[in-house]
Amino acid sequence: MDQSISLNKFISDTGYCSRREADNLITQGRVLLNDRPAALGNRYKPGDTVEVDGSLITAAKKEKRVYLALNKPPGITTTTELHIKDNIISFVNYPQRIFPIGRLDKDSEGLIFLTNDGDIINKILRAANNHEKEYVVRVNKPINPAFVQQMSQGVPILDTRTLPCKVQMMGRQTFRITLTQGLNRQIRRMCEYLGYTVVGLQRVRIMNVRLDKLPLGKWRHLSEAEISFLKESVADSSKVRSEDNPSAPRKKAPARTPAKDHPKTAFTPETKPSPHKHKTTKPPAKDSKPRTGKPTEKPGKRENAVQKPSQSRRGKPSSPPKNAGKRRRG
Fold first, then answer.
1. Are residues 153 and 279 in the same domain?
2. Is residue 263 part of a domain?
3. Strands (DSSP E) found in 48-108
4. Are residues 25 and 78 in the same domain?
5. Domain that holds residue 34
6. What whole-number distance in Å separates Cα of residue 205 and Cα of residue 196?
7. Is 89 within a domain?
8. Does one domain contain both 188 and 159?
C-alpha cells in the first residue's frame, strides 16, 4: 500500500509552516528531498529526508495540534515574517510554531485563528466551502436602506463583483455584514465604491466561533467542541486536490474571468443575428459569415462570384460569332 503523501503536506504536518508556505519554499529552491532540490508535486514516503534552509525536517518533530483564537488589535500585521514590525507571530509569542488562518487588515481588529494544523488552514481558506465570517463595521456618515441593499446584492470591485451577502443596519453609521469570500480589503473597498469610508472594522465571528467577551489583544485555546465542529464543517473540502495538485488553486482564479466575459459575449452577437435569421433564409447565411471574424474576405468572394457568372455570360455571346465565323469559313 502506498504510504506516500505530498511533500507540502508532510512539511505542514510537522508544524513548520502551512501548505501554501511550503509550496513557496519549494518553488524558491529552499527545500531538499533526499539531497536533491524538491519540486511541486513531489511526494514524501517513510525513510525520505527533507531539509528546509539546511535544517532537517522529520516526522518525529510533529507537535500536538494547537488551535488559538486571538482578538487582534489594530496595528498588528497578519504575517509570519518575523522581521516585519508588529507581526502577529511575535505579538502572540506562543512557544510553538504557529501561523494565522487567513488575514485581517492591519487597521482592523477582531477574531482570527492561529494554528499549526496545515490541513485545516487550507480547508477553511477555500472560498468554495462558503465559510461565514461576520463583521461589525462603522463608517464615516449615516447609512440608509439603499446602502444596505446595494451592499447585500454585491458591489463591483477588483475587476469582479462581490457575492451576495447578509447586511443588517445596527445604527446610523454602523452595520453588520456576513461574508463567504475574502477579497483583499473587501469591506473597505465595497464601502468606498458607494462613497463611504470605513472608520472601524471588527470581525466578531468565524464559522461557529464567536469573539464574545475575549479582551482586545488576548487569545484563548479553542474548545474541543469548537474544534470538532470546525473539522466537521471542512470535512467535505476538496483535500485531495490541494495535496496532489499544487496548481489546483490557480484553476479557480481564471474561473472568475470567464464569468465577466460571458455577459459581454452574449450581449451583442446573440441579439443581432437572431432578427436577421427570421427575415429570410439566404441573407442570414450571408450576413452570418462576416460575423465569424472574416468580414472583408468573404464579401469579396461574393463579388468575384458575381463577376464570374457575368464573365461567363459575356463569354457565351462572344462564342456565337466565333461559331458563326467557322460556319462562314465552312
1. no
2. no
3. 50-52, 55-57, 67-72, 99-101
4. no
5. 5-61
6. 23
7. yes
8. yes
Q: Give yes or no: 13 in active site.
A: no
Q: How many CB atoms lie under 10 A from the CB of residue 185?
A: 16
The answer to whether 291 touches 273, Cβ cutoff 8 Å, is: yes
Q: Does residue 318 sit within a domain?
A: no
State the catalytic residue, choosing from 23, 105, 117, 119: 105
Q: Cβ contacts of residue 131 below 8 Å, gap of 6+?
A: 124, 180, 206, 207, 233, 234
Number of domains in the chain: 3
Longest dimension (CA), the chain: 121
Walk along the chain (330 residues) and give the pLDDT tens digit of each residue.
677 889 998 888 777 888 888 999 999 999 999 999 999 999 998 888 899 998 888 775 556 889 999 999 999 999 989 999 999 999 999 988 898 998 899 999 999 999 988 778 777 776 556 789 999 999 999 999 999 999 999 999 999 999 999 999 999 999 999 999 889 999 999 999 999 999 999 999 999 999 999 999 999 999 999 999 988 888 776 543 433 333 344 444 444 434 444 343 333 333 334 444 444 444 444 444 444 444 444 444 444 444 444 444 444 444 454 444 444 444
* 53 and 109 belong to one structural domain: no
pTM of the model: 0.59
Spatial distance between the Cα atoms of 204 and 192, rounded to a whole number of angstroms: 22
